[in-house]
Amino acid sequence: MAMKPTSLPQIIRRRVNIEFDPAKARGWYFTKKEIEDFLNAVSFIFPPGEKFFIQSVQNYRDKITDPVLKEQVKGFIYQEAMHTKEHVRCNLALAEAFPLGHKVEEFTAKFISLVHRFSPKATQLAWTCALEHFTAILADTLLSNQEAFINDTDPAFAALWLWHAVEESEHKAVCFDVYQEVVGKGVLSYLHRVIVMFLTSLTFLITLYFAMRQVKKSAKDAGQNRPADQPREPPASPDTPAKPGLRRLMKIVPVKLYLDYYRPSFHPWDHNNVPLIEEWKRRYRDFGGPDVAVSQ
């Protein structure tokens, strides 16, 4: 485990407007098709998911007494709203290449509506804490491989995912801190948090499996419907699995970081990835034109 940072990064409100070219929506990751499928699937999940994140925190805005945390919540909501906007725009560009993507958004939205309807607000917040841990893991993985990711991807998609990763890292503790302030830090709060994480893990894997199936089916149908004079994508080499799927992706997931969430003393900033945030800032200076920086 890395040492906790002595000072936390600012939660910066960036104005972002990335131009996505629909013609580049298929094959924007030049070297790793399975990771492209995964990220496309996650992009279709994000818009309804991030709206849920915002609502679950807004449920408790009036109960937060710590003035610093109140400001952090404002930054969190701003960043998540901007993520929703940009992924909606990204998904519009992806829609032609992956027309079944709308089914992913519909499936995710329907499931979230059930969570809203049948779970208490504290449980909704615990769901958000769990899902924010997943996004923090994804963010850390992307930021740990920035140079290779930039070199191997279309610039617009690289900008989207690395910017999103940085902001998920900047605010990765906000929901958790809100949970501890309004729900508590005792044994029952801990048990509630980890039980919800277990349930979230199962449902997230089911949703992700469904999403990747839709993305792959879209790609397959598009290949079958391609005009006869249009070249097809080259077949996979003998060394490349025909259907890499979730099993291969799981091999690159930092399982120890996931399991860390189950520690009673866990806090998101136990894993210090501030140097990765600073590396991104050097690569993308003034990206998005910072509006307001929220101190932590």
Question: Overview of this structure, please?
Answer:
With 296 residues, this protein is mainly alpha-helical. The protein has one domain. The protein has eleven helices and two strands, in the order βαααααααααααβ. The chain has helices spanning 33-58, 67-95, 101-118, 121-143, 146-151, 155-170, 174-182, 187-224, 245-250, 255-259, 274-283, and strands spanning 11-14, 290-294.
SSE layout:
Layout lengths: L10 E4 L18 H26 L8 H29 L5 H18 L2 H23 L2 H6 L3 H16 L3 H9 L4 H38 L20 H6 L4 H5 L14 H10 L6 E5 L2
Antiparallel strand pairs: 1-2
| Category from helices, strands and their pairing | mainly alpha
Q: What share of the residues does DSSP label as strand, in percent?
A: under 5%
- Oligomeric state of this protein: single chain
- Report the total helices: 11
Radius of gyration: 19 Å
What does this entry show, briefly?
63% of the residues lie in helices and 3% in strands.
Features:
single chain, 296 residues, mainly alpha, two-stranded antiparallel ribbon, 11 helices, 3% strand, disordered C terminus
